[in-house]
């Protein structure tokens, strides 16, 4: 298919102009719609298709081609299936996150603390919310029968509804149906006189009759807690869609788990009290903790707060009165909650240590390696001045963090690592007229990957020229070891062979492009010294020769351009040469104020 309008060039291939559209809308292509009902049906099909904007989808299918193949497979073979990674499924999962979070807190509260006739009549807003939760969960059962499955462990998507329904009907269907029964409506059909004989009351009195089963559905609704893993899975997908970090997702899951366990522990504490002691204050054991405070004549919410506080200080072991008289069931619950509290503390402490270690891993490695370096220098009995200089170099090289570029390079790959290097080295390389005029963008990226980072402290010698003399070939080894420098931060002083200062180079400047191409008989090789702590990148002559070996034409063009620059310099006077070098941004010359410096 041809694209209309002007073609846009490819960033990686400037000479290539693509005439094929890769953003083909398969829904419009396979599902034509000429009327409003058909457009509505196509919109619904689009909502049920795989969502190519979702990060979870990108994680599973990796490429646009794989996503389009999955979309085509669904439209062709499974047109009535809702994809588990579709946009509709994401919206529905967001609704189910709120529904599950509400159900996990309201259902145990309703089963445990609401047992009086006044808690059921009249029909309160609390029970309206429970009824709405049951209706949404029943709708989720229907939607689950038409939705495919996604297995995160092996990253497989199953859209075969026959196989999906068979697997769903084995277990989860019955749990969802039983726990989603609209028990508030069933309670409304029960006569008020029967509400005193609840199932918990019958279990306590060991007096069973048909009226005890009126709140059986209400008790069975606590089976919805088996869907807590589904709730955590939906929450993880929600966080992944918005690009939250793994540590944040894990913290949210831990927080939701701890709050839910604490809430259910609070309800369990009062449920055990109801089963063991009953709800009649006159018949409750005087050693029970509920008899020490005004508990039974309070509202259900106040009783919940009392149980929450007792659960909190028992689990966390904030305080404990060993002189307190307790019943045997109180002792058992206190023992179980205390042991569970210690296990929870160990788990949370381990997770916290892992989180802190990951969060401050670079800083901890920095201090670890610095301490190891200090011990090594003390073991070798190095001079104090040298130890101080080495530690200063380490602190300047790794400012409070430690990173290994070799590991980062191996993880990212050459392409991304090259783009990162060009963000720093691109302006420096393009500031050199010889390199900018000779090499392409891809070749400049290759040069950036071949450059080495160097750090020099104050008064360190960056390059020293020891060649010269009358002997033929003197200084040949020094010529091959010459490095062109690109200054990132700091100041570099250039000296003659007689150690007479010529000029200073600062941030963003470079020196040594002619020395990379010619020998000592054609250009001068100076000495380079760091005036202050300096960060720079070096391009070696030996590496450049190996790089240019497959490109003889490029090498010749580079030499010809450099020769032309030198020929023009030789025809000018000394003052004009200095001005020309400043204009082409090769170096920034600083003229001496006194004429006797030459």
Automatic annotation (TrEMBL):
GO terms for molecular function: voltage-gated potassium channel activity. The keyword Nucleus does not apply. Keywords: Membrane, Transmembrane, Transmembrane helix. CDD domains: CAP_ED (cd00038). One of its GO terms (cellular component) is HCN channel complex. It comes from the Eukaryota. The chain crosses the membrane at residues 90-108, 120-147, 247-273, 335-360. Residues 483-565 form the Cyclic nucleotide-binding domain. One of its GO terms (biological process) is sodium ion transmembrane transport. Signal peptide: none annotated. This is Cyclic nucleotide-binding domain-containing protein. The lineage of its organism: Eukaryota, Metazoa, Ecdysozoa, Arthropoda, Hexapoda.
